[in-house]
Sequence to fold (182 residues):
Amino acid sequence: MKKKNAMARNLNFIAALFLLAACSNPLGIDALHQAASQGDLQAQMKLADRYFIGDGVPHDKAQSVFWFRKAAAQGHQYGFYRLGQAYEFGHGVVPDIHLAAENYRQSALKDAAHAQDAMARLHASGALGQKDYAESHKWQVLSARHNGLMWQATDYGAAQFLSSAEKQAALRAAAALEKSFK
Fold:
């Protein structure tokens, strides 16, 4: 439990860093609401981030989820990722690890390293039921392709539990997915 809480704090800290950068917005809150309501994807993401941390609006994670969901409905990879976090950690919604995984998966299929890393973690930990080391290894391989120490340094140790044939199958599955990203 302590490890999960520490991981949640780390993820929230990393998210906060992204949020601080994302929240610089020349639009006023009313204009931002109007643009988001009219389907402006960037406005939806900025508004969601602002509600998540309470920047210029009340701190309201349910409203944050509402706007992340709108952005995800338009296919935004970070919108899917943030919905995954909300469902995994219960931010503004009832926690549901399977909905978290589905949203992470949607983001990961858009070649988002952070979501690929989350998929590797969930599969390696058995959070989705049984531990699936081959699936974890596939997502870890995909995540590690991205530049950035966070994703290259993360290792859930899934490969150590796989035979050579299973590792090769996971690598082939990762390569097939990678082709779909281009």
Summary: The mean pLDDT is 86.
